[in-house]
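Why does residue order matter? Because the sequence determines the fold. Keep that principle in mind as you read this record.
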Amino acid sequence: MRRTKPLLYALTRAGGAACLALALAVPVQAAEIALLTTGAYKPVAAALVPAFERRTGHHVTIRNETAGAVAQAIRDGGRADLVVLTPGGFDALIRDGRLAGAPPVPLARVGIGVAIRDGAPIPDITTLAGFREALLRARAVAMVDPASGGSSGIYLAQLFERLGIADRMRDKLVLVRGGLAAARLVSGEADIALQQTSELLAVAGAHLVGPIPAEIQSFTVYAGMVPAGASEPEAASLLLRDLAGPGSTEVLGQKGMASPSP
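Structure:
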């Protein structure tokens, strides 16, 4: 019996240490974080969230819409613990009293690209003239419907007017109300897709030709904000810190985006 007590004591201490380590590693109560994001940023969030969940024990539900639809959801009373939107979108919501909280944190920057179906002839879009010609030669061009509030769709509609080709493009446009324009390449509905690069890269069977010419390029910045009144503000703030941290740089590049500062 003399030997049993020290052994039992040692085992008890070891078990207690293990329980303490487990308690420190896992949150007392795992949070359910609702992330509402624009579609362009979703591939980055989806790539970064699993490591965050493993490390913290929290769970993240990602909902994505066009920038306009994200803003409208908030105007309609939608709630989220973390919102990813353009700075302009945040400014309007804050000005209208629909959002409050700490200032948005810049997360990413992305431009508009051109994609074709895998194996299709690659158009020369390195010059403005070549890009314009590729659009006019295309049987059908897929892009986000400007009426849905997508940033790239709104810009492209204005660009076609500036280039003097709006009338010639009208009948060949395949408009996507949210979602991935490049999916219409795979389905055969279009032979060119225009959208933010991160969304073009998200479609298997689509080939990214490259960005639209520099002189007409439009970059969109995305930022994250934890709204006042969020159900899980502390957990959402941890997630925002991860998304904005140095560990996101490699993933941004892989998904066709860049750090928010040029």
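The chain has eleven helices and ten strands.
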